[in-house]
Prior knowledge:
The structure holds two protein chains of two kinds.
Chain A: H1 10-58, H2 61-73, E1 80-85, E2 91-94, E3 110-117, E4 123-134, E5 140-146, H3 148-199, H4 214-264, H5 268-299, E6 308-311, H6 312-329, E7 333-337, E8 343-346, H7 348-364, E9 371-379, E10 382-389, H8 398-401, H9 421-432, E11 435-439, E12 444-451, H10 453-459, H11 463-486
Parallel strand pairs in A: 7-9
Antiparallel strand pairs in A: 1-2, 1-5, 3-4, 4-5, 6-8, 9-10, 10-12, 11-12
Helix pairs in contact in A: 1-3, 3-11, 4-5, 4-11, 5-9, 6-7, 7-9
Chain B: E1 3-7, H1 11-23, E2 27-31, H2 34-44, E3 48-52, H3 60-69, E4 76-80, H4 85-93, E5 98-101, H5 106-117, E6 127-130, E7 133-136, E8 141-144, E9 147-149, H6 153-164, E10 169-171, H7 172-179, H8 190-202, E11 211-214, E12 218-221
Parallel strand pairs in B: 1-2, 1-3, 3-4, 4-5
Antiparallel strand pairs in B: 6-7, 7-8, 8-9, 10-12, 11-12
Amino acid sequence: xxxxxxxxxxxxxxxxxxxxxxxxxxxxxxxxxxxxxxxxxxxxxxxxxxxxxxxxxxxxxxxxxxxxxxxxxxxxxxxxxxxxxxxxxxxxxxxxxxxxxxxxxxxxxxxxxxxxxxxxxxxxxxxxxxxxxxxxxxxxxxxxxxxxxxxxxxxxxxxxxxxxxxxxxxxxxxxxxxxxxxxxxxxxxxxxxxxxxxxxxxxxxxxxxxxxxxxxxxxxxxxxxxxxxxxxxxxxxxxxxxxxxxxxxxxxxxxxxxxxxxxxxxxxxxxxxxxxxxxxxxxxxxxxxxxxxxxxxxxxxxxxxxxxxxxxxxxxxxxxxxxxxxxxxxxxxxxxxxxxxxxxxxxxxxxxxxxxxxxxxxxxxxxxxxxxxxxxxxxxxxxxxxxxxxxxxxxxxxxxxxxxxxxxxxxxxxxxxxxxxxxxxxxxxxxxxxxxxxxxxxxxxxxxxxxxxxxxxxxxxxxxxxxxxxxxxxxxxxxxxxxxxxxx
Amino acid sequence: xxxxxxxxxxxxxxxxxxxxxxxxxxxxxxxxxxxxxxxxxxxxxxxxxxxxxxxxxxxxxxxxxxxxxxxxxxxxxxxxxxxxxxxxxxxxxxxxxxxxxxxxxxxxxxxxxxxxxxxxxxxxxxxxxxxxxxxxxxxxxxxxxxxxxxxxxxxxxxxxxxxxxxxxxxxxxxxxxxxxxxxxxxxxxxxxxxxxxxxxxxxxxxxxxxxxxxxxxxxxxxxxx
Lengths: 488, 225
């Protein structure tokens, strides 16, 4: 029979370790108690037999044998030993056959080994505590005692140990097994959900109970990741549609023009006109493709490697210089108010592109005589780049829509552009871990909000882990989950 | 008559390009794969090369790398369908002198080939002269005849670039790349607007116009009649 799965889990191993440590500790404790008690009882017994010796030795010689025999008579449990030996070592009385070998008659209690005859007729050999004294007349008095209490104690201790430790140990193991199985159950539950997600149901989320349980914490993190992924995948799916629709328009125009031209053009000039219009249509389609590829490049970018310190003051000045003539052409005032020299961590070229897009939009959608203001501010741990214009603005309802690809508000239907500008800005902002905020009118106010480095770390730059997860999800999901569960 | 080598694997594209270049007065040799291209480059020693990046046999960048290792300094224009910034950077770092993404307009191709063939020699001159214009690179001043022209830094750079390549057609893309350093700036009329201002400053009333707009192509600084 295969050993059950939980045997391999870390939880079980931990339970085993704890049980082992507990066993060692308890055994040591009991051992200590035994040793202390044993010592005490022996000491007490020694005092008693020493006292006995004093009494018997004090008795006059002729009455000594009687005393010894009386003493032994009172011993109901056969634990006492007493002996009288003459100066030659011959037995005079008592229940000792001979002087116990090794016993020194120096008035100190020693452990010696004796053999005696039991009433049953058998011989028994045991270690006893005995004390001996040589009286002035040459007689040797020996008093001894079996230390049977020690045996009794060790018996009790052993029993306690057995009764307590073994069930305790088993209980520990059972608890470990149960916890491990529970964890495995959770893993299986999560795995089921994950399989459903992989199969395509992006809306599934992992279940979690109380917030403090580590498993729940993990579930919450993974859910956050799944939210990100769902957004990305939905966006990606959306792109396919967007591309199809918006590429088809200029390409259709080109095709129609060519078809009609072929049939209807009579002069070379007319045909050249047709061809020119077709080239324009094709170029438009190519612009869209390039812009989309650029967006994809940024969104999938590992350009975090090109991040450095960007001096915003200088950067904004550069963008202002680029757009100044264009604004002037349209009689729109372009002003930069950047009093502090603030820096952020990012890709300088991408940030210029983002700000340039915002300014380009601002100028494009601001009527003549209007103004565009670029400000650089600080607010509660964040650096903000703000672009304000006096144009038509973006209404509350359109605020989310404008960030979608190819969205162009009706208000600006007649201005040139494809509708990818804000999308690009949003992609660049996201790559950096910044935020894009659009405020409703009058006019338009767009802000790029850059949290400070520490805050960025706390947020965990959500985009990246989600991306990593997305890349490896299908293959590693199960393995990762099992590894995670093993360590809980 | 300048000799060009075109290394391009798509025969239709190659035919069109060869025909167009021939019409412009170039002598064109064609190779359809990397290895053949490398051999021909070594053998024919063309004045300039047009190399497609994605080639069978040996890819375009490897061909260029091999030539550079042999100390061959022929200017190379890299053609590629890969248009990402990193691709451009890589193409130029591997030894290419210019990078053009497909599809492209012929005028773009021709202008760039001309620019490669007539690359301004490395000169230690601190003053550029083109027609009546005099540009001091150290002092950052410009004079037309006796008249001082006051230019903004970007306009100065623009004029400097044009004067280094006087009498050559410069496309908007080339100008954007050179003067604005590949910055992906959305304003499509950026070059036009700046050029307009520059022209206003350089070609004053009564002056013979030096900066010309070539319709549908780009700009040119004409020094001669």
